[in-house]
Write a structure and sequence with these properties.
mainly alpha, 2 strands, about 60% helix
């Protein structure tokens, strides 16, 4: 309803009709512009609160791609489940209900301003990671493609990467890792297995992964490894130079099979993003902690392992007719079919259908093989040969930069013998105070 307007008066912000003020708010180009306008005067603040749901929905629809909006809403629901702190026995039901809602139904959900702000902020991070990872995958794909020049990623391809990032964050919210500080091997395995061996917790994680098709699980594995590449440099900076970490003999990590970096990844995308931006020792130490790092044994990597073992057991007991009738129903129906084509090419032999993040396909994941459109997959020339006959050229830069074990041992001994408990160690220069760290 419009506010009274006197045509003889010169209009001001305060005297503008309410429907005009609503249009101004509705046409804010981004979240920060809307928040600034709301904070500029009481008129805009109270006008927003007359139509909070409508304005928030309009802004979210503009800021978050419609292709991934259901995934953003699913994450919102996962966060609510996490806040309510369900018991282990309730978790499998909560996961099933979360994935049981159709994508179309999710889009109809109402947003609060607080949830909208959080969703848009996170989507900005996801947008950035998606572009960064797509460039990384394309760089290796180009080296292994018969095309002279690969084209930039399509809208569909970027959307697949974003959906996988959302799935990773949903997993973080539903199954936050229990971080441990005990460094003994006995404690690592005893504590690490206590929660994951709870039948309800295990069932909930298996349910989460089972709701995804095999190629969606492999997309999640691609993202898992890509996010690891974002945190490993910071972790290794401290492993090589932090005085206290040297005393604890924290080793340089060369691959994703590491419980320390799993603990860091379990913190979620916002934390990973902050760590990826830190480029000095001091910044990285502030984010990763000044004491010895925590570790986690019940996050995504172990879930992949357990789910794979479960699938192999089920496959070994299934009859031939059951195997033939088995159909994979993806949470998201990808009409292009490129990821399914790529996955079926690599898994053309029987027995590995339920597995994800296997070492055998690491080179394929470095090329982002389950993210590409069908036209791109076919254009690489990969499908002309069997996977077993294909050798993809990829390298893990983090592993190539790793010091030898002997070099690490010398570093540990040097830091153990130093009288400086908190400092920056450098070969040939010893340990110096933190305020002199690069």
């Amino acid at each position: 309803m419009s506010t009274p307007f006197n045509e003889n008066e010169k209009p001001t912000l305060v005297t503008l009709p309410l429907d005009i003020i609503f249009l101004l708010l509705e046409h804010c180009c981004d979240l920060d512009s809307l928040l600034s306008l709301m904070a500029s005067c009481r008129t805009f603040y109270f006008a927003f609160h007359n139509y909070p749901t409508s304005l928030t929905h309009t802004l979210i629809s503009r800021e978050i791609d419609i292709a991934v909006l259901p995934d953003a809403i699913q994450l919102l629901k996962a966060a609510e489940i996490s806040r309510n702190g369900p018991s282990f026995s309730d978790l499998p039901i909560a996961v099933s209900k979360l994935f049981g809602e159709g994508r179309e139904a999710l889009v109809k959900d109402r947003w609060s301003l607080a949830d909208g702000i959080a969703a848009i902020r996170l989507h900005s991070i996801i947008d950035g990671f998606a572009s960064k990872f797509a460039s990384y995958y394309l760089s290796w794909l180009q080296k292994n493609s018969k095309r002279d020049q690969e084209t930039p990623p399509s809208v569909l391809e970027l959307a697949r990467i974003k959906r996988a990032l959302y799935k990773f964050e949903v997993f973080c919210r539903l199954f936050p890792a229990v971080e441990q500080d005990d460094k003994s091997e006995e404690a690592r395995y005893a504590i690490g297995s206590s929660r994951s061996e709870n039948p309800d917790f295990d069932a909930a994680q298996m349910s989460f992964l089972s709701f995804l098709s095999p190629w969606e699980r492999e997309q999640l594995a691609c993202i898992h490894e890509s996010l690891w590449r974002q945190v490993a440099p910071a972790f290794n900076d401290l492993a090589l130079h932090d005085s206290w970490w040297g005393r604890e003999r924290i080793a340089y990590v060369e691959d994703i099979d590491d419980w320390y970096t799993e603990s860091i990844l379990s913190r979620g995308l916002r934390s990973i993003y902050d760590i990826s931006l830190a480029n000095t020792f001091t910044q990285r130490r502030k984010l990763l902690g000044s004491s010895s790092p925590a570790w986690s044994a019940d996050f995504l990597q172990k879930a992949f392992d357990r789910h794979g073992s479960l699938q192999l057991r089920q496959a070994s007991t299934a009859s031939d007719s059951e195997k033939t009738e088995q159909r994979f129903v993806p949470f998201y129906t990808d009409l292009d079919g490129g990821p399914e084509v790529a996955w079926e090419w690599t898994h053309s032999f029987e027995g590995r259908e339920g597995l994800a993040e296997e070492m055998e396909y690491q080179s394929g994941r470095a090329c982002g093989y389950v993210f590409w459109d069908k036209e791109r997959v076919e254009g690489t020339g990969w499908l002309d040969n069997e996977w077993e006959e294909t050798e993809l050229e990829t390298e893990e830069e983090i592993a190539l930069m790793a010091p030898t074990f002997e070099e690490q041992q010398l570093s540990w001994h040097a830091r153990e013998s130093s009288c400086c408990r908190d400092g920056y160690w450098e070969k040939g220069k010893g340990v110096r105070p933190l305020d002199q760290a690069p």
